[in-house]
Amino acid sequence: MHFVTYYVAGGMTVFPKIQIIEHVHYWSTVVLSFFSFFFMFSLVFNRFENIQYFLSIVVSQNLFGIYPFLIGMFTIGESAEATEGSILNLTNQLLAIALILFAVTIIRFYILLLKGRYQEERNRFELGNRFELLSCIPLLIVAITGISLIIFHAIN
Q1: Where are the domains of the chain?
Q2: What are the helix (H) ranges across the chain?
Q3: What does 100-120 look like in DSSP terms, one character per residue?
Q4: Are 85 and 93 contacting, i.e. CB atoms less than 8 angstroms apart?
Q5: What is the pTM of this model?
Q6: Beta carbons of 154 and 87 less than 8 angstroms apart
Q7: Crossing angle for the helix pair 18-38 and 49-61, to the nearest 10 degrees
Q8: What does the pLDDT look like over 89-114, one tens digit per residue?
């Protein structure tokens, strides 16, 4: 995945400071791989179960979030019309949207936890059908706004 991202997609891009991004991302991936190997053992896994759960989330976000994001940004940076300024502008917009989406998600789950929606005696069918649809509306608003900004930037 690293080779495809930085040498295939990022080979001819105008994305700035790609070598620094590659260096930092490479070493953070190495550290995540080391910790993943370390948590493979049941003695460590059983003792630090919460940390292992957090680590699995970070590793999955690295594989299925950061790499595809960088591949997309590097591919956009290969077009003839792309400039360093336009790529940075798009990157800042997308990261701001991602941060807002993350904040809305945290607030959503925090409110649901305060209301007691994730208690053990609740029915799973009731959880899935009654409040999940209504609590996804803010996420959809933020996501649709982000998609429309991406389309607007692509048209310009």
Answers
A1: 1-81, 83-156
A2: 2-3, 18-38, 42-47, 49-61, 67-76, 84-114, 124-126, 132-135, 137-155
A3: HHHHHHHHHHHHHHHTTTT-T
A4: no
A5: 0.68
A6: no
A7: 150
A8: 888 888 888 888 888 878 877 887 78
